[in-house]
Amino acid sequence: MNGAQDMGGKHGFGPVKPEPNEPVFHAEWEKRAFALTLAMGMPGGWNIDMGRFARENRPPAEYLSMSYYQIWFAALEQMIKERGLVSDDEIEAGHSLRPPEPVKRVLSPADVAKTLHRGGPTERDTNTGAAFKPGDRVRMKNIQLRTHTRLPGYVRGHIGTIERVIGCHVFPDSNAVGAGENPQWLYTVRFDGPELWGADGDPTVKISVDAWEPYLEPA
Amino acid sequence: MCTLCSCYPWPVLGLPPVWYKSAPYRSRAVANPREVLADFGVTLPKDTEIRIWDSTAEIRYLVVPMRPAGTEGWSEEKLAELVTRDSMIGTGLPKSPQDLK
After folding, report:
1. Nearest-CA distance from B57 to chain A in Å?
2. pLDDT at position A101, please?
């Protein structure tokens, strides 16, 4: 979606300001929001792309005025509500009001380290060949998807060069809407600064994105 | 970097600092990297090529910093002392041998 999360090249946000000591969390609730979000992925049954969409799918003014973990917590609340795991009156009450819904899987404390270490590999086997090879010139399609996509606005319509064929990976645009993993060839595509940022773009800058084959056409 | 959310090599570098997830970094690093480096007090020669990887898929990137001059013959452990988190994110240079003294 063309939401506020798609920030590449936007102006007006001011300088980067590293904090003294850089605390990872700024309040106890942030730790809990983070841990709950990771833990609920298993019983909740959503995938990483659904989770990302739940976070970005909100009015831009809201997205930009919320802190990082406020966004995470709001998305978690929404995803467990959508799946009937909690209801509005329970959130209002701050505790459960009826017996919990059965869930398929639960993340137990003993499995946390193992689960985090395993991560969520997205590479899949395929018997199709990759359409592009390193050195090929490609144009990024101008796709204006209203649901989740990993095609940033700032590269759409622009021409780049295939830098690397990564492999066949779960396609987020499908996975986010429950349409299956639909694995697609994934590439790293490299762009020259002026191609993306105009005549004033820095020619010493090269920008690379990872892009699935459905985002690309020969150029 | 990650313009779309906050992708970061957690298993290697831990959770990212707040600035990495913030709008100023996500918006500017991809378009005006020299300005962002200046925010970190880093100035590179005008003709130094700058490469940016926007982590739009589940591939995570980090920088293997260039070996500083004057470290010939150093052990792996001693070289590792020069490596900073920011030098692996790409917003800083590794420490110099003088910094360790």
Report:
1. 6
2. 86
CA distance B59 to chain A (A): 8
Q: Is B75 a catalytic residue?
A: no
Question: If you ran DSSP here, which 8-state letter would residue B19 be given?
Answer: H
Low-confidence ranges of chain A (pLDDT < 50): none
DSSP assignments along A26-41, one per residue: SSHHHHHHHHHHHHHH
Separation between Cα atoms, residue A91 and residue A30, nearest integer Å: 17
ipTM computed for the complex:
0.95
Contact call for B54 and A207, based on CB within 8 A:
yes
- Contact A24/B17, CB-based, under 8 Å? yes
Radius of gyration of chain B (CA): 14
- How far apart are the C-alpha atoms of A27 and A12, rounded to whole Å? 28
Is residue B2 part of the annotated active site? The answer reads yes
CA distance B77 to chain A (A): 25
Q: Rounded to the nearest 5°, which phi and psi values hold at B85?
A: -60, -50
pLDDT, position B96: 94
pLDDT tens column, A88-118: 999 999 999 999 888 888 999 999 989 888 8
Local confidence band at B40 (pLDDT 50, 70, 90 cut-offs): very high
Query: Which residue, chain included where needed, has tokens 């966004």?
Result: A71
Residue B5 is a catalytic residue: yes
Is the four-CA dihedral A13, A16, A22, A24 of positive or negative sign? positive
Residue A42: per-residue pLDDT: 87
Between strands A137-140 and A216-218, the pairing is antiparallel
Chain A: residue whose CA lies nearest to B7: A52
A207 contact residues in B (CB cutoff 8 A): 30, 52, 54
Partner-chain residue, chosen from A68, A152, A204, that has the shortest CB–CB distance to B48: A204
User: Which pLDDT belongs to residue B42?
Assistant: 97
User: Which residues are bridge partners to A189 per DSSP?
Assistant: A162, A209
Q: How far apart are the first and last CA of chain B?
A: 32
